[in-house]
């Protein structure tokens, strides 16, 4: 396997940093683009494991304000991150001169790929790993950042430290986050796009109920396939191999169907 560093100019005064993983056993000349979750990077699990192990060429990258990429981020900037993904897709097609077989995301990154698909419908295979559906729930901050609530009330913001970056969470960002409406997935064109959703039954971050809502909005098969992994948590700890095999199997099954769709997009 070869790892090639990438730098993608967004045209907005900053660049996105990523990695191209070229595999000798790749099942296609096209690539899969993988997106990380909140407060993560392209090296976070399970994104890194899939990027390195999947039997396809892979591009993974850091969203703006995350990892090594420039720019800034907020807790609910899915629209901005969808445009980051659009920049990377354009770069892969024009600069790397490679087709794109699919886009895959974990957690917040999974919501981003679904949002992207609902807007552009130009990548045939979409993989949603543990995306949140309901962003309006007030429980998120109360459950996961309960120790920060006093500072949030007093100062209007709090700071989260994670990896290479500190994240500022503002009251206004949380209000914007609550407005995210993932019912937009109903706009995914069933003639052009197929979606796989994988969710752990014991997901402690993004409730598994959302996976069933996505299934109702996007399905039925073959337009949408839902797989709930019994006992798996949000990060699929100790279930990475099972997660990888599930992703690969679905890609293998749908690769032939996607070929004509991909050619029409590129």
Automatic annotation (TrEMBL):
This is 20380_t:CDS:1. Gene3D superfamilies: alpha/beta hydrolase (3.40.50.1820). PANTHER family: ALPHA_BETA-HYDROLASES SUPERFAMILY PROTEIN, RE40534P-RELATED. GO terms for molecular function: serine-type peptidase activity. Residues 27-188 form the Serine aminopeptidase S33 domain. InterPro entries: AB_hydrolase_fold, Hydrolase_4. It holds the Pfam family Hydrolase_4. One of its GO terms (biological process) is proteolysis. It comes from the Eukaryota.
């Amino acid at each position: 396997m070869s790892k090639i560093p990438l730098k993608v100019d967004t045209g907005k005064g900053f660049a996105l940093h990523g990695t191209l993983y070229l595999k000798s056993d790749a099942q296609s000349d096209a690539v899969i683009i993988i997106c990380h979750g909140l407060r993560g990077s392209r090296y976070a699990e399970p994104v890194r494991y899939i990027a390195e192990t999947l039997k396809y060429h892979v591009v993974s990258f850091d969203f703006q304000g995350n990892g090594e990429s420039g720019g800034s981020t907020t807790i609910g900037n899915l629209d901005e991150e969808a445009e980051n993904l659009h920049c990377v897709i354009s770069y892969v097609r024009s600069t790397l001169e490679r087709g794109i077989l699919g886009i895959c995301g974990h957690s917040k990154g999974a919501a981003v790929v679904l949002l992207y698909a609902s807007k552009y419908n130009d990548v045939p295979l979409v993989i949603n790993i543990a995306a949140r559906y309901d962003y309006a729930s007030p429980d998120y901050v109360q459950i996961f950042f309960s120790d920060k609530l006093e500072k949030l009330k007093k100062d209007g913001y709090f700071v989260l430290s994670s990896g290479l970056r500190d994240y500022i969470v503002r009251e206004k960002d949380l209000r914007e986050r609550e407005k995210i409406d993932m019912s937009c997935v109903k706009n995914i064109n069933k003639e052009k796009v197929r979606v796989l959703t994988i969710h752990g039954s014991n997901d402690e971050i993004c409730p598994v109920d959302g996976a069933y809502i996505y299934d109702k909005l996007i399905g039925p098969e073959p337009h949408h396939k839902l797989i709930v992994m019994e006992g798996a948590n949000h990060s699929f700890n100790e279930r990475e191999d099972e997660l990888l095999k599930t992703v690969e199997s679905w890609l293998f099954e749908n690769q032939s169907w996607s070929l004509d769709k991909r050619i029409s997009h590129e």
